[in-house]
Design brief:
The protein contains 11 helices and 10 strands. It has about 270 residues and is an alpha/beta fold. The structure holds D-glutamic acid.
């Protein structure tokens, strides 16, 4: 028996503002859900940290969201999912939804049998990613690329900068040289770079991320547990908390209608 009600919020966390790309997908599919988003920007990027550090930060975020009485937690971070979700599921009595790079869908869509994956060092070096990639690597050539520096620039509000374009060119060229036809965005910050990436890779390469799939999975689990919040006379709340610069979070959410954005310590 679940001790949560439908009105309890969905908790979502990421190392920073990137997971808002997942929040947006969830909000499109589940517009009546109350949500609390945690942007651990003070500790970004997670991708360069050790597994132990990523685990410690994931526990800290999880415990905050549990304290806020969230009914489900979406780990809107590939790096945290691939390094910590196994531990979280084992140690906390709450459903977790994780996000992993969509290399399996890419392996189905590729015609050249060569796919590229852009992700953090923490994700690409994780056991979980190794395991998933080993299931397709017999037939598919996977070109891995660490997106070094990309998260830092996004967190600094430099999404559409010359610096970003130059860095993206450096990261994407090796994959273009190897003739990939699918590019997997393996970090929740990267959907914000799709426009710039498209400019560099052209129109023939498919760009794939896992955002929609995560939203669908969140809905499935809520339905299964009878926790889905439907339209109600009371409007839903969308709270966003960051432990760093509030302005960056406000900017990334300007096309949405957050109820409340606040800088707090967590
Ligand atoms: N947004 C993150 C991810 O999906 C983490 C990036 C980072 O902090 O390095 O991997």
């Amino acid at each position: 028996m679940s001790y949560f009600s439908k009105n309890n919020p969905i908790g979502i966390f990421d190392s920073g503002i990137g997971g808002t790309s997942i929040w947006k997908e969830i909000n499109v599919l589940l517009p009546h859900e109350n949500t609390i988003y945690l942007s651990d920007s003070i500790n970004a990027p997670y991708g360069q940290k050790t597994k132990e550090e990523i685990l410690r930060l994931s526990i800290k975020n999880t415990e905050y969201l549990i304290k806020e009485k969230c009914k489900i937690i979406v780990v809107a971070c590939n790096t945290a999912t691939t390094n910590a979700i196994k531990y979280l599921r084992k140690n906390y009595d709450i459903p977790f939804i994780g996000i992993e790079p969509a290399i399996k869908p890419a392996s189905i869509q590729t015609k050249t049998n060569t796919i590229g994956i852009l992700a953090t060092k923490g994700t690409l070096n994780s056991e979980l990613f190794e395991k998933t990639s080993s299931t397709i690597s017999d037939t598919i050539n996977i070109i891995e690329q660490i997106g070094e520096g990309l998260v830092e620039l996004i967190e600094a509000g430099k999404i559409a900068s010359q610096e970003m374009e130059s860095l993206l060119k450096i990261h994407l060229q090796p994959m273009l040289d190897q003739k990939i036809d699918c590019l997997v965005l393996g970090c929740t910050h990267y959907p914000y770079l799709t426009k710039s990436i498209r400019k560099i890779v052209g129109n023939s390469i498919k760009i794939i991320d896992s955002g929609e799939a995560v939203a669908r999975q969140t809905k499935n689990i809520l339905v299964k547990r009878n926790l889905l919040r439907l339209k109600d006379s009371k409007s839903p709340f969308f709270y966003f908390y960051t432990n760093k610069d509030k302005k960056i979070l406000e900017d990334i959410l300007k096309d949405t209608s957050p109820t409340h954005i606040e800088k707090i310590d967590f």
